[in-house]
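Q&A log
Question type: sequence-to-structure
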Amino acid sequence: MRETYLPAFKELVKEADVEAVMGAYNRTNGEPCCGSKTLLIDILREEWGFKGHVTSDCWAIKDFHEGHMVTKTAPESVAMALKNGCDLNCGNLFGNLLIAHKEGLVTEEDIDKAVIRLFTTRMKLGMFDDPKNVPFSDTPYELNSCDEHSDFSVEVAKKTLVLLKNEGNLLPLDKKKLKAIAVIGPNADSRDALQGNYFGTSDRYVTVLDGIRKAVGNDVRIYYSEGCHLYKDRSSVLTAPRDRFGEALAAAERSDVVIMCLGLDATIEGEEGDTGNEFASGDKLDLNLPGLQQELLEKVYATGKPVVLVLLSGSALAVKWADEHIPAIIQAWYPGGRGGEAVASLLFGEYSPSGRLPVTFYATSEELPDFRDYSMKNRTYRYMENEALYPFGYGLSYTRFEYSPIRAEKTTIKAGESIRCSITVRNVGSMASEETVQLYLKDVEASVEVPRWQLNGIRKVFLEPGSEQEVTFTLTPRQMALIDNDGKAILEPGTFEIYIGGSQPDARSIKLTGTPVQKIAFEVVGERMELEY
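Response status: OK
Response body:
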């Protein structure tokens, strides 16, 4: 828990000073998270000094007696939540607090404590001040919805797109050499595939189909087909299965290149009950492309036309067949209202991709551990035993980068000291581009099981062709520390290895990128130290 699950929350609480924290639906070590003394009092408030308020996830407190069965009644559930530090209920169950008070389950002081925290937040927001003294109270609609913000969203989307494969440099496409493009797939003209979960309303929507049309203008003929439904066996109720396959194949056969837009959207990838969908209650059944998408992809590929696969999804997909057969693959995620412009910009080489995977793409669902097992064995890049399909931290560019050997200021440090190291990155290709420089740290001689290596530094550098830049990282004692079996942060003397490059140092990443990762070792000497977690 302290090595994997808590660190991000700790940084947000202690470094970013967040005002609100939400408890989860599940139980952790037997305690429902929204009523967990361990999480909400012992760790969050006492150990980390959190001063803000805690809210439940929606209807999570009702789960105490209806799902988890750790309480018998609604008043017992709200008492458990309130007394263990949950100040606000998303839902209506806190209407039972008066009953809980009358039954002696909570005191007036318990209620006061939550109310004070909640009203303190409202005061910080200026809700009781004269509006003219509140900086954002007079922000007009026109300022919120303006070209500057909209254009910025496109630039952000560009930075998130990840180029997973580009065999034979199929990408970028040269518009001048194309007469016709087929754009095929259930996500090609889908707003749902742009916006993902928990979205507002964009003032402008540009699907991938729209973006491609805008990019090529009237000079290139666009053939479009939905190809298949996102997960059903037909697109229309009254038709036969595979009712759009013929149309999709006709479009492919008439084109110079095919852009296949497949994947997921929020109707099949979200919280249970979010959309009331009939597919899998907001969850994925496995990591494969749902419905007829894989079959459609294979049939379009069989036409012999070059295929670019654009995956729109919020999570990893097992696309092993595509990796073996499709020459170019882009992971576009849910790229926002004008995300189609960002995708088209990448397809036609208006910029070079620099996005890197923030999750591991596994080859199959079957290789994953039991979903109910919270241990880290064979999970994530830090503990993987099998080779990933596409590793964490991986992504390609339209140019190439070279890395100098790592330069460290010392090769031996005393326990408790930091160490600085530098590396020079050079753009040896023909296109200007950002590069995502990554540092991974490995504890070679740990006394307990630790990650095989762990990301401990990341820098973005923009380089013109032929130019270079020095990048410097500082590793702190806390970054060198391990978490022992008692949950304590311990800095042990011994050998550590630093890896710096455009990816992880694993064999799969190096094979896919063709760029080696630089390595250097250093020694920590002195006494074993316990550090603040």
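Response note: The domain at 401-531 is CATH 2.60.40.10 (Immunoglobulin-like).
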